[in-house]
Specification:
The complex is a heterodimer of chains A (296) and B (275).
Chain A: H1 7-21, E1 81-84, H2 118-129, E2 155-160, E3 165-170, E4 177-181, E5 198-204, E6 207-213, E7 233-242, E8 245-253, E9 262-272, H3 288-291
Parallel strand pairs in A: 4-5
Antiparallel strand pairs in A: 1-9, 2-3, 3-4, 5-6, 6-7, 7-8, 8-9
Chain B: H1 2-14, E1 58-61, H2 96-107, E2 133-138, E3 143-148, E4 155-159, E5 176-182, E6 185-191, E7 211-220, E8 223-231, E9 240-250, H3 266-269
Parallel strand pairs in B: 4-5
Antiparallel strand pairs in B: 1-9, 2-3, 3-4, 5-6, 6-7, 7-8, 8-9
The chains are: A alpha+beta (296), B alpha+beta (275).
Amino acid sequence: MRNRFPAPLTAIAAAAMIYAFTAPPAFAQAPPDNSNLGNQGVPQGRQGGRGRGRGARPPSRPTPHWPDGRVNLGPLPGEKGVWSGQAGTTIITNRNGIDNFGQNLPTNLKVDDVPFQDWARALYLYRVGTLTKDDPHVRCKPSGGARLFHTPYGFELVDMPELGRLYMIEVGGPHTWREIYMDGREHPADLDPSYLGHSIGHWEGETLVVDTVGYNERFWISREGPPTTEKLHFIEHFTRTDYDDLRYEATIDDPGAYTKPWSGGWNIRWTPGEEMYEYMCQENNRDVKHMYGGER
Amino acid sequence: MRSGFVFVCLSVSLFAQGPPAGLNGGRLDRGQSRGPVRPTPHWPDGRVNLGPLPGEKGVWEGNAGATLATNIRGGIDNARMNLPTNLKINEVPFQPWARALYDYRQATTTKDDPHVRCKPSGGSRQFHTPYGFEFIDMPEFQRIYMIEVGGPHTWREIFMDGSQHPENLEPSYLGHSIGHWEGDTLVVDTIGFNERFWLTREGIPITEKLHLIERFTRTDYDTLRYEATVDDPGAYTKPWSGGWIIRWQPGQEMYEYICQDNNKDTKHMYGGPRE
């Protein structure tokens, strides 16, 4: 029934399809990244927005503002740049190898100080102990919560005051976007649980505060895998402390997984001159062995 | 019997990924009527506002039946929203291999559509995907983002700063887009596409030689005219154009839909046996 075409036409179509699909993949699969952290390698010719130069940076300029006084979370007009998460940062400081606490906030908790419920601690230790092989993010699932902000390659905070909204868009992961309502509304009752949840935001002085509920349980809130449940109430503080630095701090209030709320975060660096680019997790999985937990 | 079979498959495949419970994908309910049409909104600086007026809500919603070339006989078409100037399929200047591939995709009821495998919506594909999309116009940054609910919930960037296309682009799903305004029309010029997506839902073939020119005109508050010119000497003997009308869905907002988790039609996706 499905082969309704005469053989000659099928042959032509097959030849055409071979022609159409034999072009080399846009970003051919590169050797796996040696670290287990940069699961999705950087396209050739790109630095992934990371400040690879080890030299000292010039002194940072002050925090930029719009004429109406709002903090400008992007480049000054006429300049370029993106925020670039550092894959080694963690919401819990954990020196067992999956951590690069150089960018972590000094106030971050050590693992033993996190108020885990027993099951959540066991799951966290399992995830860390298996080198985060089950991370949904490397299966191209959306970057819920803090996960977006330590994913490399760059993200932008797009503030649209005319529309009462702010968008967060990212290169890494599935190249997706998150919406923050800035129009003073409340969370709806009866949300369908989702990866990105329902986010409302407001400014407290120079700090953007984002309050999110309505999460599902299918993602990891950060790369190293602290468990969360549908009861998660997530509060994020974004402070551009100078032109080159964005302080990110998140509070996890989840009575399904923790005995009390706790906080952690990291510093995000501005990468000048970079722009957002096309990266598609769905096509660029550079570390399939790691993704599927196979042998290395 | 065959046409009935095809119709059933199509009606499943076009909406392969249904809207979440409680959302109707931005469509007006049956019997709900629209008020009188308001004029095209503008910002104070004179630019066309491609979104809602401040204080209002709404998104653009592509009609999954719209096609770049009108092909009523093939069944995978809902010519009602197509531009009256659209070519009939026999008038499209296909090269023979491209025509054969197009016919194959149609005959197999678009079972190989990369979009339903959550690949990005390159070119026109975004604009007849249901569930809604928005233009995020940021003149301060000289960029416009196009963000969509449907497909993999992704975004596309249009540079509005007068820059040219770079040389030696790596082919990509969304290509490299530069835009400018011609009066009230946003004109977007894109090159650097890969060959791994379908330009439109019905499977218009393209190659890495594609030069796509898109024109977006908000003719009134509720209506966006979309016209695309396909200039691809790898697949066609000369440039050709087509497009459709996109309707404004007042009161709707963007929401979370993740193709990677919502594949409702895996039988169709993988071409497996159907009941």
